[in-house]
Amino acid sequence: MRVLILGGDGYLGWPTAMAFSRKGHEVCVVDNYLRRNMCRDFDVDPLYPLPNLLERAKIWQAVSNKGIQVSIGDCCDYEFLREIVRSFSPDTVIHYAEQPSAPYSMLNYKAAKLTLSNNIESTFNIIWAVREHAPNCHIVKLGTMGEYGTPNIDIEEGWIDIEHNGRRDTFLYPRQASSLYHTTKVQDTDLLWFYVRTWGLRVTDLMQGPVYGLETEETKQDERLATIFNYDELFGTVVNRFVVQAVVGYPLTVYGKGGQIRGYLNIRDTIACVELAMLHPAAKGELKIYNQVTETFSVNELAEKVARVGQQRGHQVEVKSIENPRVEKEEHYYNPTYTGLKDLGLQPHFLTDEVLHGMFEVVERHKDNIHEHMIFRGVKW
Ligand SMILES: NC(=O)c1ccc[n+]([C@@H]2O[C@H](COP(=O)([O-])OP(=O)(O)OC[C@H]3O[C@@H](n4cnc5c(N)ncnc54)[C@H](O)[C@@H]3O)[C@@H](O)[C@H]2O)c1
After folding, report:
1. Is the pLDDT reported for residue 378 higher than 90?
2. Can you list the positions of beta strands (E) in 181-293?
3. What are the catalytic residues?
4. Residue 143 contacts residue 207 (beta carbons within 8 Å)
């Protein structure tokens, strides 16, 4: 397949690009370095330095003998994006190109505005570019489980049947996000659903939970192929951050009661899920939605797991509850359905002690690069 990956320099985008290239797909990646620039602006370096995207593609070529086409530019620039879609003519677009941090989106007006305009415009532009230049192309969009919030009823896979005054219909499952970032994802879903209904686009929206992990089959082949890994409170997802905190003896910071439950998945499973979605495309005029998680944990359970494995490896690990800086429920019902991707063949990698030991090994190798002052960012909402 010809696969266009928007956000191909990111945590998920770069490993996806290499995995699909290795499998023989024709891959083109697009990125404007927003993520790297935000990290630089907020003094939150990743765990190790990374070659730029053009260099990464050259290293990948040398290691695998396969090419990845690179285009540096902004998906919010319509002329740029439509030209890529026109000239590359993708069968599938994988849309990762968004500002992905909830705390960043709640920092201040400027960060909120950037999140809102970047995320909605990039989605809007890819919809138009596909319609104009590749109308049969399947859009695979990364959404988030955070779109649903934490309702006091079971969370369905995208849709819900409602019976009202004796009549029935099927609707998007109600969304009620708890950060501006997550709200932009709700808006993305609405935009996509509108254009699917109206123009007959083919779209899969993946409601993904927080991802953890550093290694995939491809990143392991050469350390210069590693993916970006942040451990600060702005860009580091919780498991990744806890492992780094454990390695440097920084308390694992649990917000409030720590009963916040979410669905998680390994970075290897993200790639597998996106591939499954790509290989089972939506029909014209269909919006497919999958809940992309493999298991659920409370923050307390995660902290306990990381602390236990850290202690086995000789680290002094303390778990510390701090006043919750976020507006969120600290204890709640949480029962999402996530069978769709398993039905397509997903074989999950669970968060076992062995997996955590593997993460610790990598982080310990880079211990000298960890700057404790970068961890706490004090974002409140
Ligand atoms: N990582 C997770 O745990 C997680 C969980 C749920 C959903 N997601 C979603 O998955 C997607 C990828 O997440 P990630 O963790 O890889 O984030 P990331 O920040 O590492 O990757 C996104 C990439 O897109 C690029 N980008 C952003 N806006 C752009 C634009 N306008 N034009 C071109 N490039 C642009 C960034 O520079 C970055 O390289 C995001 O949409 C995110 O919301 C991620």
Report:
1. no
2. 202-208, 211-212, 252-255, 261-266, 286-292
3. 144, 181, 185
4. yes
